[in-house]
Amino acid sequence: MFDFLIIGAGFAGSVLAERLATVGKKKVLIIDKRNHIAGNTFDYYNTDGILVHKYGPHIFHTNSRDVYDYVGQFTKWRPYEHHVLASVDGQLVPVPINQNTINKLYGLNLTGEQMVDFYKKRAEKTDVIKTSEDVVVNAVGRELYEKFFKGYTNKQWDLDPSELDASVTARVPTRTNKDDRYFTDTYQAMPLHGYTQLFTRMLEHPNIKIMLNTDYADIAGVIPYKSLIYTGPIDSYFDYCYGKLPYRSIDFKFETIDTEKFQSSGTINYPNSQPYTRITEFKYLTGQIHPKTTLVYEYPKAEGDPYYPIPQPENADVYKKYKLLASTIPNTYFTGRLGTYKYYNMDQVIAQSLTLFKKIMSEKNVNHLNGHVVPFAHTNGIG
Questions:
Q1: What positions belong to coiled-coil segments (predicted)?
Q2: Does residue 375 have a pLDDT over 80?
Q3: Beta bridge partners of residue 228, listed in sequence order
Q4: What percent of the chain has pLDDT over 70?
Q5: Which of 218, 242, 283, 361 has a Cα at 20 to 30 A from 368?
Q6: What span, in angstroms and rounded, lies between the C-alpha atoms of 164 and 99?
């Protein structure tokens, strides 16, 4: 009898497993359909000995000291600030759009104050901002929107920015200063020895058992447990009874080149006619010294592993139905990007799990766990 069965060994599930085992003194079984822990942050050394991220680049950044300190229990940090360039008009210019971007793109020498006027003259103000197009055009005008956002967003989501919620492009701000960093969070770093080692340390508690290559549907009726934490797609858990929630997926193409360095920054975006959205060179992220280098090209697609919930009002309405249904199931918790159908950053998922842990412990202290055994739910799960 396990106190908790946790579906999914990414950050959402693993943080909860660690807290429940270490602080809550609970017996935890964590399972995953994949053959590895660490979810989408899983990294490994390829045949050339280069550390790569299997599911695309993951850069840790947060403004939360609590989140940074929590993760820091399981890894030493390598300070790292991510820089991204975009291929625009035959040039490589920094993104997010900033003073250096505009000056290089247009051959200008604007100051910070002049940048404010530059944006203001081009901005097309709208009273109500509803879409991703509205966000950008309202801030910097249509020309920069066309150059930097429209093509990239269309490739990433297979939708025009005018069809997407404002939250998508709001994630990438525009700046009037020369700050070329992609993120401005207080804490920016990479796990010194990679994410997989971080997760290995996080889950090495004796109260935690791990089963890989395991689907929830295959063990739910066999292994008894008192409470369930589900980090897979919420619609899958309920056999898509309200319809399938759409996601965008990505096809990752890796290439190793016999040269020490291939490109001039960690990531280069292609908001143009290239079929891929970006190329990332891992050695920038990891700091590894190696005579060769490995790149990953990202080709967005509709089918495949669910990575990005598609932020449209109709999808939010369907999710609300699933959320309401989920609230009726005792001792069952849905969390993470897939469990709550929301486009979270890593640190947000970690914070969500730390908060959920406190909520669970508060409930269990009141209910004394009651010995309740969750019945088998017919589901495909993520396992």
A1: none
A2: no
A3: 5, 332
A4: 95
A5: 218
A6: 27
Q: Is 241 exposed, middle or buried (0-12, 13-18, 19+ CB in 10 A)?
A: exposed
* Average pLDDT score over residue span 112-125: 96
Residue 366, pLDDT score = 59
Distance, in Å, from the CA atom of 173 to the CA atom of 176, rounded to the nearest integer, reads: 10
Query: At residue 383, does pLDDT exceed 90?
Result: no
* Contact in structure between 310 and 342 (CB atoms under 8 Å): no
CA–CA separation, 19 vs 25, rounded Å? Answer: 9
Query: Are the C-beta atoms of 193 and 337 separated by less than 8 Å?
Result: no
The DSSP element (H or E) to which 188 belongs, if any, is: strand 187-191
Check whether domain 96-170 has CATH 1.10.3110, yes or no:
yes
> What is the number of helices (H) and of strands (E) in the chain?
15, 17
Of 191, 197, 189, residue with least CA distance to 36: 197
**CA 202 to the chain's CA centroid:** 19
Which residues are registered as beta bridge partners of 88?
Answer: 91
Residues 264, 77, 251, 171: is their CA dihedral positive or negative? Answer: negative
Structure tokens at 190: 């990479």
| C-beta of residue 203 within 8 angstroms of C-beta of residue 210 | yes
Architecture of domain 2-37+203-245+310-367: 3-Layer(aba) Sandwich (3.40)
